[in-house]
Amino acid sequence: MSENNYKLKIDHLKTFFFLDEGILKAVNDVDIILYHGESIGIIGESGCGKTITVQSILNIIQDPGLIVDGKISYRLNDEHQIDLTAIDKDGLEMRNIRGNEISIIFQEPMTSLSPVHTVGFQVIENIKIHQEKNKKLAKQKALEMLELVGFSSPNHIYDSYAYNLSGGMRQRVMIAMALSCNPSILIADEPTTALDVTVQAQILDLLENIKKKFNTSIIYITHDLGVIAETVDRIYVMYMGKVVEHGSVKDIFSNPLHPYTQNLLKSIPRIDLDIEKLEAIEGNVPIPLDPHWQCGFYNRCPDAIAGQCDTKMPSLSKIKNQEVRCFLYSDEIEPKDEWDTIYG
């Protein structure tokens, strides 16, 4: 696909948190592109910067976080594009984007849904804020959405409270709320967390059917490659605030290039192999607080090259149909900018 036909395009995004201890570089020079009607996955362990990346799209970063550089282009139509980093995050234009154009399903519905209001009240409020002010028509739309996400008795769910519902049912309610204003982009942040495998499959099937029915573009955020193996078109692998590998789902699964991606794949349970113990990546993701100018995976990498990986930052290089940030494939070094020279 041509880059000119994107639905959402992130260029050199940097979202930092300015702490007393230093600068936490949660998202550090990230490029991502999403096409119309496409699904992509952003994967990595907790703390890699996945959620902050998508929160940056909607500019809902909590203090002391701040987008310090980069551009997030959203295409309204063929003639009009908006740089989401250039508009007031609390202004009317941004409020119209959130929910109306781009919706997000948060990873824990129990903390996102109000315990003191009915499901119907919450879905209606979302519709009234963005689209239909008439309460009767808003209720009709809310019931349609609850039916769309698979509830056979939408009226019963409408009158229920979040604590009356199972985890899978609450997640369906969150999806109904996210879809209630017909967004063109849906962000699913760990949509199957804490759900059993059967319910996980149902939720993923539901999102896939919604994508086909409405031609919705979907961004999946997950730490689990297995969840999105048959769901997305392309995958971005993140580590310490940077994209370390990017490619089609077929290429990533059949030929992972970066040592981090390779180790993530080895940690997935497989029924076709006689393995008694799953492989694990030793250590934890370092906190990107004033990070050194080196490959972020250096201290955990089995293939690290001393004197190179620990002293230079590899560039994201094109290798056939994939992109990878690793000196095993290219000697290209990422150029420093003003933020890198301060602590690099």
How many domain modules? 2
Order of helices and strands: EEEHEEHEHHHHHEHEEEHHEEH
* Overall radius of gyration: 21 Å
Largest sheet: 8 strands, mixed
Helix/strand structural class: alpha/beta
Amount of helix: 25-40%
Q: In the CATH scheme, what's the topology name of the largest domain?
A: Rossmann fold
Please, what is the CATH homologous superfamily of the largest domain?
P-loop containing nucleotide triphosphate hydrolases
**Roughly what is the average pLDDT, rounded to an integer?**
89
As laid out across the biggest beta sheet, the strand order is 6-7-8-3-9-10-12-11
Number of strands: 12
Low-confidence stretches: none
Any idea what the shape is?
Answer: globular
What does this 3D model show about the protein?
The chain is α/β, with parallel strands linked by helices. The chain folds into 2 domains: 1-101 and 184-344, Rossmann fold; 111-182, no CATH class. It is built from 11 helices and 12 strands. The chain has helices at residues 50-57, 92-97, 109-112, 119-130, 135-148, 154-158, 167-179, 197-214, 249-254, 259-266, 338-343; strands at residues 6-19, 22-35, 39-43, 65-75, 81-83, 102-105, 185-189, 217-222, 234-239, 242-248, 317-319, 322-324. The chain has an 8-stranded mixed sheet with strand order 6-7-8-3-9-10-12-11, with helices on both faces. Helix 8 links the parallel strand 7 (185-189) and strand 8. Helix 5 crosses helix 7 and helix 7 (167-179) runs parallel beside helix 8.
